């Protein structure tokens, strides 16, 4: 019998080690798996490679990605909009790395990773600093440049310039869903869907916090936003979710 | 610059842009002053606002309690209108890159007289690009809404952008607090001055070269 | 006001001319827009490039893709499973062309076209006749080879061979949905979804037949399988659909 | 060949393969005899059958009126079981290529002793590939179900496939009406003979070289 429902978050997260790559759903604070992140912060993991659209705002007492950054658990952040002032300070000091990825490219790279594709050509960022090898990923002391984004391979197709982007295959994904069933089928709610299904598709192991679980059956087939094969563990967090 | 303060307010600028939207258009609005557009309903015109993380049919800010799952590109609470749809971020950018956005409206740090747009990074500043590069690569039209001058009083309409580009040659129109410009056959063209603003004043506050083809108060 | 609902199929199809490329949803007879195809057959169009998964079975009185083939309206069929015996005869006689595309690659090429991507690398078909330039697309008289599938560019990524596939951007799509609203938002039913949303995404002009239309409002945002911007025209066909 | 007729029937072959499925697996079944697998329920094991155009949770053929929107890869009417999900064909093949299928079971025209699979084209015949190339490129395991001999009585397990390949070196196991083979460290290995079938008879009807490591009636 298939049953991906777990009694608590802690057991689902034991595979995540220092240095793991973890994709996390959410846009700003919308659809961020706050409870899973809190549970992850209870563990002694450092040096994570986090793949998420935003870096949190860096506010006092903030949950979510901002908490991971504040507790200095992140070595590298692949995102489109880091925002977090403290993380920027450490970035310019050479303590952490930022891989800046256009938002649509970030979404598509996760989907490509989850779809077994080897890469894709996109017009996004062609002719910009995010494609020409000048964007600094990591500074050294005194502001020297230690690492930049690689210069992207470009190709003219039907008269237009495209750049080659690679798939993302993070070790883990942390995902927030609205509804789940024991097969791991998921349904999201409005703008909280955003990167969540894409992170789930891409990861080697996907852990979901769901507002509600269909304990007495399964979700209707046509109401499912992401089918169960992309999901490994589901934890119910009804009542815990910040609203 | 005090001169710039005599032009349109942010709300007036949003109203001015809203006047040019066409009934039925699907429109993405970027962070900053473009986020005021969904507040500017025009009788007889139905505009579908697209929010890049995965919503269509975004409306004004809520009157009552906000729904944390319904936010705009700036993470502010908004509402959904009739016809709204939700989807994941890859489909959202398929809409953008696939040419299904009639328009995207973005803020800008600089616009070049060649149509280049710079809106994501002040050199030496904190980087953050969001969906801007995807949007300018895919939308059928790109309009810029911005103040005519930057905070230091320097013209934002320049011969060439000195800041890193969001996209080369992508801008179709520029709406500032002082004027409306349009790229006509690739040539930056002044089409309209804000009420009380003279063409001479625009000329004094604009570094970019441009043609003049005024057509009164509205395009 | 946005209203993509049209009173009948005929007016929606006038843009389709002889030589147009038309993607059509469906898998076998499941989810095929039969009424739109019938309406298309009322027009004098020939030499179509049809992009669809199957070629119909070639049975007497068959509707769907099989009818288009039987009436000799198709010059080129891009598909994974042609099946149709009569079409095969004309293929070997050099009268029609078959671009054979693996099913997953066909789906992904439509999605790439609809997503503004320039192409993608897939492991599918690497090391086979569908990638090495030997598959015959068009025969001439006496069985001579007039055209083959191009040899696909291949690339080794992380030790695995991938081939480069191009996006499909058909002029038109004919799509069958279960529910639609005036904004063009669509919902499909079970296995009838298949290629329908992908054909809709890819095409320059998408025409939908819907079993039912939400005449008194719109579909709930989270119940929509494909949002309206990918749809141009919707025709209601309740009661006409073969069940 | 009359000899082949003394092996397993199609239903017995399906039962034999079903015995080796693991509880919880997500399994794609291809056109032909693999489509019998969803009919072979095993108590205590829940198998999720994947249908390539966009369904998960496919069950046996319906007892009553068929639903035309619920068909298998062979376009036959089937049912959906608890936990079923529907999606479009691009997501369906994302499941396949993305490594989320524990297994795909396909028919074959030929299997090479090097694991090559040929199942889509007899040279000179009518071409049709369906999803087979995608499935063998992505599934974690590829099992073949086939008759041991072709209609002309020739061995289908060959030194090398003479028909165009579906995928090179992709096969993990081969279940025929006469025997079960497994690739063990890349070496084709006879693991089991059908009831009443001797290893000598398998040897006489198999062109491919193989090792023998029998382990009784079941693996």
From TrEMBL, chains A, C:
The keyword Nucleotide-binding does not apply. It comes from the Bacteria. SUPFAM superfamilies: NagB/RpiA/CoA transferase-like. Pfam families: CoA_trans (PF01144). GO terms for molecular function: CoA-transferase activity. Keywords: Transferase. PANTHER family: ACETATE COA-TRANSFERASE SUBUNIT ALPHA (PTHR13707:SF60), KETOACID-COENZYME A TRANSFERASE (PTHR13707). This is 3-oxoadipate CoA-transferase alpha subunit. It comes from Actinacidiphila glaucinigra. The lineage of its organism: Bacteria, Bacillati, Actinomycetota, Actinomycetes, Kitasatosporales.
UniProtKB/TrEMBL annotation, chains B, D:
GO terms for molecular function: CoA-transferase activity. The lineage of its organism: Bacteria, Bacillati, Actinomycetota, Actinomycetes, Kitasatosporales. Keywords: Transferase. The keyword Iron does not apply. Belongs to the 3-oxoacid CoA-transferase subunit B family. InterPro entries: 3-oxoacid_CoA-transf_B, CoA_trans_fam_I, NagB/RpiA_transferase-like. Pfam families: CoA_trans. This is 3-oxoacid CoA-transferase subunit B/3-oxoadipate CoA-transferase, beta subunit. Coiled coil: none annotated. PANTHER family: KETOACID-COENZYME A TRANSFERASE, SUCCINYL-COA:3-KETOACID COENZYME A TRANSFERASE SUBUNIT B-RELATED. It comes from Actinacidiphila glaucinigra.
């Amino acid at each position: 019998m298939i049953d991906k429902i777990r009694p608590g978050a802690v057991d689902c997260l034991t595979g995540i080690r220092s240095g793991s790559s973890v994709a996390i759903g959410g846009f700003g604070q919308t659809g961020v798996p706050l409870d899973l992140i809190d549970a992850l912060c209870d563990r002694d993991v450092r040096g994570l490679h986090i793949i998420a659209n935003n870096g949190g705002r860096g506010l006092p007492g903030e949950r979510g990605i901002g908490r991971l950054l504040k507790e200095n658990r992140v070595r590298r952040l692949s995102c489109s909009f880091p925002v977090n002032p403290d993380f920027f300070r450490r970035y310019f000091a050479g303590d952490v790395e930022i891989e800046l990825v256009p938002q649509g490219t970030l979404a598509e790279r996760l989907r490509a990773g989850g779809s077994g594709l080897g890469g894709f050509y996109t017009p996004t960022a062609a002719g910009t600093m995010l494609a020409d090898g000048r964007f600094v990923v990591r500074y050294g002391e005194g502001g020297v440049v230690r690492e930049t984004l690689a210069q992207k391979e470009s190709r003219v197709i039907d008269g237009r310039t495209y750049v080659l982007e690679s798939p993302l295959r993070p070790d883990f994904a942390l995902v927030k869903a609205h509804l789940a069933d024991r097969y791991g089928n998921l349904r999201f709610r409005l703008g909280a869907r955003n990167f969540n299904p894409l992170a789930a598709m891409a990861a080697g192991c996907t852990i979901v916090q769901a507002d509600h679980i269909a304990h007495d059956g399964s979700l209707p087939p046509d109401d499912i936003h992401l089918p169960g094969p992309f999901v490994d563990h589901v934890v119910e967090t009804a009542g815990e979710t910040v609203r | 610059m005090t001169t710039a303060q005599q032009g349109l307010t942010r709300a007036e600028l949003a109203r001015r842009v809203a006047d040019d939207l066409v009934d039925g258009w699907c429109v993405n609005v970027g962070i900053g002053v473009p986020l005021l557009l969904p507040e500017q309903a025009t009788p007889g015109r139905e505009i579908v606002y697209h929010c890049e993380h995965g919503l269509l049919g975004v409306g004004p800010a809520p009157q009552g309690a906000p729904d944390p799952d319904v936010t705009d590109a700036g993470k502010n609470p908004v509402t959904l209108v009739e016809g709204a749809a939700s989807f994941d971020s890859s489909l959202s950018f398929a809409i953008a890159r696939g040419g299904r956005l009639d328009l995207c409206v973005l803020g800008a740090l600089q616009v070049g007289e060649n149509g280049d747009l710079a809106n994501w990074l002040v050199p030496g500043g904190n980087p953050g690009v969001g969906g801007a590069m995807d949007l300018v690569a895919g939308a059928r039209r790109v309009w810029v809404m911005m103040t005519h001058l930057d905070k230091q009083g320097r013209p934002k309409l320049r011969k060439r952008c000195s800041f890193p580009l969001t996209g080369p040659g992508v801008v179709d129109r520029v709406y500032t607090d002082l004027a409306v410009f349009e790229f006509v056959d690739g040539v930056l063209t002044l089409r309209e001055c804000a009420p009380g603003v003279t063409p001479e004043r625009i000329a004094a506050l604009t570094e970019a070269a441009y043609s003049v083809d005024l057509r009164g108060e509205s395009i």
